Amino acid sequence: MSIILLIIALLSGFLLLILSANKFVENGAKTASIFNVSPLVIGLIILGFGTSAPEILISILSALDGNNSLGIGNAIGSNILNISLVLGLSAFLHPIKVIENNKKEWLFLAIATICAGFLLYDQVLSRIDGIILFLLLLAFFIYAFKQVKNPNQKLDNLDYSVDKKQNKKILFSLVFSLIILILSAKIIVWSSVEIAKIFNVSDLIIGLTVISLGTSLPELALSIASIIKKQYAILVGNIIGSNFFNTVAVLALPGIINPDKIPIEVINRDYVIMLFLTILFFIFSYKFNKERIINRLSGFVFLVIFSFYMWMLF
Asked: How many domains does one find in the chain?
């Protein structure tokens, strides 16, 4: 197949991925409203997991096809882009107010990030490694659902009330958007691997750049929408939740499905950048100033790191 058709297929896959991911998040939140689920669960689970759904599906499909580097690169690359590009651009456009309650969620992200570093240090992503990361995911779910009883947990202006007459329509739309999400992810994996073969580029680089950028678009779209509506808690919470899911689910799946060695540059370069950005995220949020505002200067620093990282890759 010609390179032009492959690029069209890749772009079409990204378009379908973004549209279906947004629908999946929206219908997932409405479904949560139907079953009277807490707003905190909507924010942490529906939005965090929903915007990570593209990465999760691509990780599964690439692992099944024997392209583990694609899924690993997608997981780490998406985390790097979520902080350096999505959060950086958002803060550069408008300073972001960080709420105190996000500290507990950030602690989960910090533990998952450090744990992933220890597990990847031997340059092997084994089935045991994947299971350990999934246990962290289980612990997070237990924490999130315990918070359901906390009446003080709110997401301002987040209204997903629905007419009970539309229940079946919403559930059908949820399933349909999930199917499109899976198909679009499959298209992206197939076309990106074929393009990589043509240009003799490794699966890892494709995962760290093209696919990570594409699968980070839902987070970027949600972040910009959150700025417009001044829902900063949603913006920061989504970045934390998405990166956590990428670490404990997306990164774990290749190990569980297809245990294999990982390229040394993942540890020496990509993980180091991811860890540094995660620490910087916390410093800019809670330690850099008493107002707990991620200002434009912080956003600019993140964007500089993003540019430097892209330069390192190419």
From this structure: 1
How far apart are alpha carbons 13 and 238 in whole angstroms? 23
* H or E element, residue 260: strand 260-261
Q: What angle do CA 306, 311, 314 make, to 5 degrees?
A: 130
> Tens digits of per-residue pLDDT, 99-126?
665 677 788 899 999 999 999 999 999 9
Report the sign of the C-alpha dihedral through residues 307, 117, 220, 86, in that order. negative
Q: What is the pTM of this model?
A: 0.81
Among 222, 38, 247, 55, residue whose Cα is nearest residue 147: 38
Q: Are 72 and 207 in contact (CB under 8 A)?
A: yes
DSSP H or E run through 96? strand 96-97
Domain encompassing residue 87: 3-313
- CATH number for the domain harbouring residue 52: 1.20.1420.30
Query: What is the mean predicted confidence (pLDDT) over 84-88?
Result: 93
CA Rg, the chain, in Å? Answer: 19
